Amino acid sequence: MAKYQNLLVAIDPNQDDQPALRRAVYLVQRNGGRIKAFLSIYDFSYEMTTMLSPDERTSMRQSVINERAEWIKEQCKYYIEAGIQIEVKVVWHNKPFEAIIQEVIATGHDLLLKMAHQHDRLESVIFTPTDWNLLRKCPCPVWMVKDQPWPEGGKAVVAVNLSSEEPYHDPLNIKLVKETIDLASHVNQTEVHLVGAYPVTPINIAIELPDFDPSVYNDAIRGQHLIAMKALRQKFQIDEKFTHVEKGLPEEVIPDLAEHLQAGVVVLGAIGRTGLSAAFLGNTTEQVIDHLKCDLLAIKPDDFECPITQDDDEEDDDE
């Protein structure tokens, strides 16, 4: 499998434990490939040292970069000694998400992994502004890793859109399912489940149209979604028992099913648009993400246009 051979791990600078690095090692051990452990750092106080010469400021910054690089190497030491190929890179940049995306573009990384913090009481995943910017703008798939071990027998749940209102949904559904099946077959032979949600009858229609029969409407909508799901699963020879068509809002149906199945990861599409709107995920996708309690893999459509470029005024320094 050619996919996911060049992994970029965004290192969390605030803790020694690195779940995203562990997950990347897990993937590489089963699928091959290489890892780059990447950290973007910035300290405004170093820019304020006006009494120092530019060379002295550069030297101070480089010493901080070197120090953090050594710290990351210590985190990677066990994996490197076990034969995992890991490169360490630290840059000076005041916008971490831009630095990460520019690295993805410059080096052709095909998967970005980053830790997502967990809400202690609710068990839900908390996404920072950097996380959201990466999910919205990163051109390669983004794997948000929850700070917990992969569940025993953890399944992969693919959230598909079975309504045919928008033409981009069909090719995106196919891409999501194909990449998930490829990943599952090469990594952990896990079950791949497909889930689609269909809407309930709008209450205002039922009230305004006395002859309107909600049950007939619901049956018709469900029937359309079942037909679409059957067509999709048959493309990949997926057994019907691994497909789920549920009534309700996607942001409720998908997280509930993922929890019921004890899923290790939910795979969903981050809708790509052109121009300025390329900075945003679809509203439904964002709401689904907010309710998840497991890992998330967000994949862009083929026509996604990244709003971040390498033409940037920020100063970068390699390790």
Automatic annotation (TrEMBL):
Q: Which UniProt keywords apply?
A: Cytoplasm
Highest rank taxon of the organism: Bacteria
Query: Mind telling me which Pfam families this protein's record contains?
Result: Usp
Its subcellular locations are: Cytoplasm
The transmembrane segments are none
Q: Which residues form the UspA domain?
A: 4-146, 175-300
InterPro entries in the cross-refs: UspA (IPR006016)
Q: What task does this protein carry out?
A: Required for resistance to DNA-damaging agents.
Q: Which family does it belong to?
A: Belongs to the universal stress protein A family.
Under which name does UniProt file this protein?
A: Universal stress protein E
